[in-house]
Amino acid sequence: MAKSPASIVEAFVVNAKRAPEKTCLLFEGERWTYERLHRRAETFAAALKSWGLEPGERVALFLGNSPDLLAAYLGTHLADGVVVPVNTQYRRGELGHIFDDAGVRLCLTDCERRPELDRVRGDLPELKAVVEVGEELDDFLKGAGNHEPRLPDGEDLAVIAYTSGTTGRSKGAMLLHRNLAANAEAVCDAWRWTADDNLLLTLPLFHTHGLMVGAHGTFFSGASAELHRKFDAAGVYDALLEGSATMFFGVPTMYVRLLREARGRDERPRSLRLYVSGSAALSPQAFEEFEEVFGERILERYGMTETIMNTTNPYEGERRPGTVGRPFPGQEARVVDVRSREPLPAGEVGEIEVRGPHVFKGYWKRPEATEEVFDRDGWFRTGDLGSVSEDGYYTISGRAKELIISGGYNVYPREIEELLEGYSGVSEVAVVGLPDEEYGERVVAAIVRDNRDLTEAEIIDFCRQDLAGYKRPREVVFVDELPRNALGKVQKHLVRDQLVDSEGE
Ligand code: MLC
Ligand code: AMP
Q1: CATH says 231-399 is which class?
Q2: Sequence ranges of the domains in the chain
Q3: Separation CA 104–CA 106 (nearest Å)
Q4: Of 183, 264, 267, 270, which one's alpha carbon is 20 to 30 angstroms from that of 86?
């Protein structure tokens, strides 16, 4: 058997040499063959080297979905650089923290994002260049000298992916090339992903789901992807009707929107080989409704930034709604008691832990935080609560970490609370997630104010300055006091219950 590739870029290069004329990406009607993307990636690598990027230095990708994003991703790896993917919704505060923490030297961006980056550029002395796709990128590429691209070693750092921590500031998860390659291999194996596949890829390419499942799987298997700038239910429905996709991956909100779209349409898409859902819980109702309307049983899987994909419902066997299936091939999972850390028998709820070649190296520059998430013998504590059935299917039933997931995006309440606590007129604040039909959960802030003139609109507007749109509270509720326990700690579950009750009234 051939040796497994040590990195995603190695798998990509092998596939590009094997089938240069094959379509790798279809983007806004334009075809990108493997050869074309390979050439663009090599030129980007050579330009980075000529510019002065040293091995291990960080390149941020802060731009919308496009072939250039992926060429720069692969090119950074061919130049021994480390990629920092950045959420395109991030505002000044979030950008400043990530660029500073990662010590980003060069950033590829686009005209829509650049003004936001310009707001913090002056505070980032290590950021030596910002290159905008279009003319600026073309000029940058003209500077490419002779550079012999080098395939990275599996042990080298590939990506620093920022994921919010419970303390509010996000931490950089360090993923090695071998983590990414091992996980892509496991995913392709489990989902029977081959060069014959064509993925309809509308997820953002700055997160695990779009980049490390969608793009990596495509490159790894030598398949094709129809890449969209962003998800839009009508556009996706049309592509499913007319295109040649064999697979679609989405967060539950996308499936809820596709179901809504289907209500206004007479025609139904032809059958796809595979629909996958993840990043947040897919409700059994959505699963069942999708099967009724689209005639397909969605395959639900579970992952996270630090570990990429952890568990999956089977491709061939029973896809059990409400569960996230079993560990991917070559990986392990277990449920432990949150205090004793001892494994629990089937059916009992505890913290889910995972172990295997997909588990990240640790948090960038944060040894204590890294130590906290590793249990004995290399088990990674996911912070997710759940149980495992007698026949090995995992169910996620809650979280040990305080986290809201809205439309597949993570929101850490502490980050918003810290921001609002600093706003004049706010005395106390608790941010919670309330159930939401479309987004799964929505962000709501309960505020005790010491200025009666403070309004909901003012608070929301204030958040707009510094927070990505999806983190902004959808509602602000003013309360007289926050429920606290004997130690004075705010009891979030009681805040949530009160808000849910008052909604029902
Ligand atoms: C956008 N908005 C959201 C939102 N997304 N609000 C709450 N929750 C969200 N998820 C807000 C915007 O700020 C804006 O508000 C308004 O909605 C319209 O913006 P938009 O850009 O038009 O939004 P839309 O296209 O409708 O986005 C919805 C969506 C998107 C579902 C397509 O959220 C999305 O792409 N989600 C995928 C997230 C993802 O990839 N997660 C994977 C993480 S990896 P305003 O007020 O500014 O107008 C991971 C590991 C794993 O978790 O297991 O995969
Ligand atoms: P992130 O830190 O953005 O990678 O988010 C990872 C978190 O998303 C996990 O720890 C889970 O809490 C959640 N998650 C991912 N997939 C699922 C799923 N299928 N069901 C429920 N939660 C999920």
Answers
A1: alpha beta
A2: 8-17+30-176, 231-399, 404-504
A3: 6
A4: 183
Say which CATH topology domain 8-17+30-176 has: Rossmann fold (3.40.50)
Residues 257, 258, 264, 270, Cα dihedral to 10°: 180
Assess whether the C-beta atom of 258 lies below 6 angstroms from ligand 1.
no
C-alpha distances (whole Å) from 84 to each of 56, 119, 202, 323, 441 are: 12, 19, 20, 32, 27
Which parts of 177-212 are beta strand (E)? 198-201
Taking the domain 404-504, which CATH number applies? 3.30.300.30
Atom of ligand 1 nearest to the CA of 407: 10
Residue 375 tokens read as: 């249990």
Residue ranges with strand state E in 112-178:
129-132, 157-164, 170-176
Mean pLDDT calculated for residue range 358-386: 95
Residue 240: phi, psi to the nearest 5?
-70, -30
> Does residue 210 line the site of ligand 1, with CB under 6 A?
yes
Q: In this structure, which ligand is nearest to the CA of 396?
A: 2
Give the DSSP letter of residue 264. Answer: T
Scan for tokens 């063959």, then name that residue.
Answer: 33
| Mutate-to-test residue for ligand 1 from 409, 411, 466, 475, highest number of ligand atoms within 8 A of CB | 409
Range with the poorest average pLDDT among 235-249, 292-306, 481-495:
481-495
Establish whether residue 203 lines the binding site of ligand 1, counting it when its CB lies within 6 angstroms of any ligand atom. yes
Q: What is the pLDDT of residue 497?
A: 92
Domain 8-17+30-176 and domain 404-504 have a common topology: no
Q: 433-480: per-residue pLDDT in tens? A: 999 999 999 999 999 999 999 999 999 999 998 899 999 999 999 999
Give the confidence band of 14 by pLDDT, cuts at 50, 70, 90.
very high
Q: Which helix (DSSP H) or strand (DSSP E) does residue 78 occupy? A: helix 67-78
**Which amino acid is residue 390, in one-letter code?**
E
146-183: per-residue pLDDT in tens?
988 899 999 999 999 999 755 558 999 999 999 999 99
What is the position in ligand 2's atom list of the atom closest to the CA of 301?
19
Nearest ligand to residue 312 Cα = 2
Q: Pocket residues for ligand 2 (CB within 6 Å)? A: 163, 208, 278-281, 300, 302-305, 324, 382, 384, 396, 399, 405, 410
With a 6 Å cutoff on the Cβ, whether 471 touches ligand 1 is: no
Compute, in angstroms, the gap from residue 470 CA to the centroid of ligand 1: 6
| Chain segment 80-114, per-residue pLDDT in tens | 999 999 999 999 989 999 999 999 999 999 999 99
Half-sphere exposure of 438 (CA within 13 A, CB side): 6
Q: What is the Cβ-side half-sphere exposure of residue 206, based on CA atoms within 13 angstroms?
A: 20
Dist. CA 338–CA 466, nearest whole Å: 35
pLDDT level of residue 320 (50, 70, 90 thresholds): very high
